[in-house]
Every structure is written in C-alpha cells, then in structure tokens.
From TrEMBL, chain A:
It comes from Micromonospora qiuiae. Residues 105-127 are annotated as: Disordered. The lineage of its organism: Bacteria, Bacillati, Actinomycetota, Actinomycetes, Micromonosporales. Residues 105-125 have a biased composition (Low complexity). This is DUF305 domain-containing protein.
TrEMBL record, chain B:
The lineage of its organism: Bacteria, Bacillati, Actinomycetota, Actinomycetes, Micromonosporales. This is DUF4439 domain-containing protein. SUPFAM superfamilies: Ferritin-like. It holds the Pfam family DUF4439. It comes from Micromonospora qiuiae. Residues 10-145 form the DUF4439 domain. Signal peptide: none annotated. Gene3D superfamilies: 1.20.1260.10. InterPro entries: DUF4439, Ferritin-like, Ferritin-like_SF.
Length: 175, 146
C-alpha cells in the first residue's frame, strides 16, 4: 500500500514526523483488515483518502496572492511611470514566487492577468497614497508568508522564508 | 517535531557566518560617516547578539562550538565608502543565506528566530543597496544560493 501512495505517505512523513508515519501506516493496515470482508472497493489510494478527504494544497492560495501583489505593482507603475523602475523588479519577484509556488504545489499557474490587489484603486493619481497602499499589501503578504513558513514541512520552508524576506524587503523598497 | 541530526551543523555554519559578518563591519564602519556609520554600528550589534545567542545555544545543546578566527578574507579590498557599502550588502545577503539554511532543520521558536534573522538581514541588505545606489533594491529570493 505504501508503494501505491508515495505522495500521501510522503506528505505525512514531512508534516508529522516518522512516528506519526508509522502510526498512520498501522492504522491504514488496520483499516484494510477491517474492510477485508466487506464489499467496499479496495482500490489503491482510495483507502487512504477515505479517512481523510483530500484537501487543497495549503500553499495554493499564496499563488493567487503573489499574482495579485504583482498586478497591483504593475498597475501602479502604469499610473505613475516615474515609479515604474522601482516597482517593476518587485512585480517580477512576486511573479517568480508564484511560478515557484506553482512548481512545488503542482498547481498550474492561472492564465490571464490577475486582478489587482486594489492597491491602486482608491486614488491612482496620488503617488503617496499609492505607495502607502502598496506597502499595506506587501505587509499583509509578508504576514501570510511568515505564517506559512512557521507551519511548513522541511522541504518548503526555505522557499517560504525567502518569500517572507522578499516581501519584507519590498516594504523597505517602497519607503 | 524533533529537528534532524544536521541541525547543529546548520547552526554552527550560521555562527561562522556571524563571526565573519562582525569582523567585516570593522573595515566597513571606518569607511562610513554619519547615518551610514551609525547604521553599520547597529548592524554589527545585531550580528553580535545572534553570535552570542548561537554560542549559548550550541554549547548548552552539547554540540561543538566553532571558534572565531583572528581575521577573515574579504571578497575585495575595502578602500572607500563605495566599497564599504558594497561589502555591507554582501555581508547581509550572505549571512541571510546561512539562516535560510537553518530553516529546514528547525521548528517552533528556533525556526521563528531563523526566519527573523533571514528577514532582518534581507531588509538591511535593501537599505545598504539604497545607500550604495544599487538597482534593483531587492532580490527575488533572499538567501537562496546561486
């Protein structure tokens, strides 16, 4: 069974450690034995999925968030061409984050332009207000990434640490 | 969650990086004046605080504490303000990378501390980049090798 479900079992290992893996593996075998005489279909990973419904990858929402941050910066750069040199590298960083998050989560990147974070919606003509709104969005993004970093399995934590640090440095760059 | 066995090694490498950062801020500080010198002093104090915490953590954990050295090779000569700022950027970005490497072997409060160091050094690198007139002010993946 383990060999048929490498992804599911691997995730259990990362999140909960080896002892949890063995406990769950035992439970899985127990469930298999319990169901042995029943008519339930014992097909592959469905057995493991049955006691834990599949949940979306916890990092998937961060892809949309990164693209929204990028869209907000690009819109601000259009509204304020004198800021574009400063804002474009930040937008590119968010897009690189989205691509990397899509890669590690196995999620396809959405096609088409992302909706702006709304950072430039209020008063696009006011440069200071635009920068304030962009900083607000970066701060929220930094906090999302920081929380995800604290909870992440070992193979994702370095990426999330870099994304947290990047968003924090964007805050500084927008001063 | 218990940390994997190479956690001590990642912390020891971070400590060596902090030793080198503290050493580097000597030649950096003497080439700077005013607010920039003050910023260098603040930065050096932050690296000293992390060094001290690491020495305590590694020695109480029973691990080996790598010794400081009398000097460290600089990547280029620091002869003026421009080269001092350039080195300050490198010191922060390279030290950030060692704390990033601590993240996968840490959990809980230790991971929070490692992330705090990574974030702080990335932000300070951005400030030094601004002082040095380097564009862009940020990198996409702070601390990532390569």
């Amino acid at each position: 069974m383990v060999l048929t479900c490498p992804v599911v079992m691997g995730r259990t290992t990362r999140r909960n450690g080896a002892s949890e893996l063995s406990r769950r593996a035992v439970l899985g075998v127990g469930a298999l034995l319990a169901l042995g005489g029943a008519a339930a279909p014992l097909t592959g990973c469905g057995l493991f999925d049955s006691d834990e419904p599949p949940t979306p990858d916890p990092l998937a929402p961060m892809i949309d968030e990164a693209l929204r941050l990028a869209a907000g910066l690009r819109a601000a750069g259009v509204a304020h061409p004198d800021l574009a040199d400063r804002l474009t590298p930040l937008a590119e960083a968010h897009e690189a984050h989205a691509a990397e998050l899509a890669r590690v989560t196995g999620t396809p990147l959405p096609s088409g332009p992302a909706a702006s974070s709304g950072a430039t919606g209020a008063s696009p003509t006011d440069r200071a207000a635009t920068l304030t709104a962009l900083r607000h969005a970066e701060r929220a993004g930094r906090d999302t990434a920081s929380k995800a970093c604290a909870e992440a399995p070992a193979d994702r934590v370095a990426l999330l640490g870099s994304i947290t640090a990047a968003r924090a440095s964007h805050l500084e760059a927008l001063k | 969650m218990t940390a994997p066995p190479d956690a001590g090694e990642a912390l020891a490498q971070a400590l060596i990086a902090e030793y080198a950062a503290i050493w580097a801020y000597g030649p950096i500080g003497v080439r700077l004046t005013g607010a920039e010198r003050k910023a260098a002093i603040t930065a050096e104090a932050a690296h000293r605080a992390r060094r001290d915490a690491l020495v305590v953590q590694l020695s109480t954990g029973g691990g080996s504490v790598p010794p400081d050295r009398a000097g460290y090779a600089l990547p280029f000569p620091v002869t003026d303000r421009a080269s001092a700022l350039q080195l300050a950027v490198q010191v922060e970005e390279r030290t950030a990378a060692f704390w990033r490497a601590v993240l996968p072997t840490s959990a809980g409060a230790e991971r929070d501390r490692a992330l705090g160091a990574l974030v702080e050094y990335a932000v300070r690198a951005t400030r030094w980049r601004r002082s040095a007139g380097i564009s862009p002010l940020t990198v996409a993946f702070p601390g990532r090798p390569g």
